[in-house]
Amino acid sequence: MKKALILATALSCSSLGLFAETPPERLEESARTMHEIMGTPDKGIPQDLLNKAYCVVVVPSLKKGAFVVGGEYGKGFATCRRGMGMGWGAPAAVVVEGGSFGFQIGGESTDVVMLVMNEHGMHMLDKDKVTLGGDASVAAGPVGRTAAADTDASMNAEILSWSRTKGIFAGVSLSGATVRPDHKANRELYGQEMSNREILASTMHAPPAARPLIAELDRYSMRKNGSE
């Protein structure tokens, strides 16, 4: 009994450590994730979809089966366009929980990327909690430079989603997952209390830690004036 208690305590402490990285470290991971995914265009996100997206959500190294949390759990960032010709805005921290993230090959973690494809989906990121497939429609995104981006899913879904596990990148439906603000991470990143709505709707400069992610998004996705 005593050994079991010690083991449970150790597992609890180790699982908490999975999520102990700082917001700047997660931003660095997010930038690396986008760079690696878009660096292989034949197996990445279709360029025209990225060009049309209103917002991007990146959750690097989402974990499976955390001892304390249970199920799937990850922290990342959402960033939205500030307007035509202005590039991507300051990122807001998010927490993603639940859903099916494609641990189909036995991986213990996965990278998740979501594209928000319309204004309604963008405003969903302002809320205290959004259920994908409920509050906002979600569908698995197509993969590859030449993938058909005019499928019913791509045309009708408010959010398109992908996961990368052990190097395998594929569209995955995150129906049932929830997205909520990470207030603590926002406070650490910006030095004050800020809601996701305040951050995503602002024209303020991104903090230094976010610049690599913004640079990657600007590099691969500058919206064309006639693409809306």
- The end-to-end distance, rounded to whole angstroms, is 62 Å
Tertiary shape: globular
| Number of strand segments | 9
The percent range for helix content is: 25-40%
Please, what is the average pLDDT? 80
Unreliable spans are: 1-20, 66-70, 224-228
Total count of domains: 1
- Number of continuous helical runs: 8
Radius of gyration: 17 Å
H/E series, N to C? HHHEEEEHEEHEEEHHH
Report the β-strand fraction as a percent range.
15-25%
**Which structural class do you get from the secondary structure elements?**
alpha+beta
Largest sheet: 9 strands, mixed
Task: Write a concise keyword list for the protein shown above.
single chain, 228 residues, alpha+beta, 32% helix, disordered C terminus
Textual characterization of the structure:
- It is a single chain.
- The chain is of the alpha+beta class.
- Helix content is 32%, strand content 23%.
- It has one domain.
- Strands 1, 2, 3, 4, 5, 6, 7, 8 and 9 form a nine-stranded mixed β-sheet that branches.
- Helix 5 (152-156) links the parallel strand 6 (138-140) and strand 7.
- The longest helix has 16 residues, at 2-17.
